[in-house]
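Renewal narrative, Specific Aim 1. Our central claim is that a sequence can be written position by position from structural information alone. The example that follows is taken directly from our test logs and has not been curated for this report. It begins with the structure tokens describing the chain, in the order in which they were read.
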């Protein structure tokens, strides 16, 4: 849907969104290049951060192209409808995910993951709550044992 720049805030056009994304990907690349783990060589010869950096670079290129393409002044009803509460909800999800990773790694993956997965599946609409709990426990255990099977140790007091 084409937009009229007098009615649509610049940041809600494709160019505005792409500019924000470009800044984000530049910050992400700066962060990645400042981390030692990115440069660690693995047994297959690749560096640990190779695919992460390549993915960030690919997304950076796509966002820069969006700034200059022929749809740069277009927008969508979904973008026009974004409000501060949507951004706060997204920030809350990021904080919860960070808390999950921190707790799963520093306390116990096998205890924290089923709780997080059950809560997440319930919030995504799995009903009744018993189904969300059962699926959270099953998926958490399957992930743990698949990682154990391929030789990746996840923190656990039990195994």
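The sequence written for that structure reads:
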């Amino acid at each position: 849907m084409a937009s009229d720049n007098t009615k649509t805030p610049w940041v809600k056009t494709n160019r505005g969104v792409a500019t924000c994304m470009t800044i984000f990907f530049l910050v992400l690349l700066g962060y990645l290049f400042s981390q030692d783990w990115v440069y660690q060589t693995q047994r297959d010869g690749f560096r640990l951060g190779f695919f992460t950096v390549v993915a960030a670079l690919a997304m950076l290129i796509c966002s820069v192209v969006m700034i200059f393409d022929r749809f740069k002044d277009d927008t969508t009803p979904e973008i026009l409808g974004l409000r501060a509460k949507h951004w706060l909800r997204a920030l809350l999800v990021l904080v919860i995910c960070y808390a999950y990773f921190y707790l799963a790694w520093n306390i116990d993956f096998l205890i924290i993951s089923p709780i997080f997965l059950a809560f997440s599946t319930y919030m995504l609409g799995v009903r009744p709550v018993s189904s969300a709990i059962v699926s959270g426990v099953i998926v958490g255990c399957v992930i743990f044992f698949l990682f154990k099977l391929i030789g990746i140790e996840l923190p656990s007091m039990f195994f």
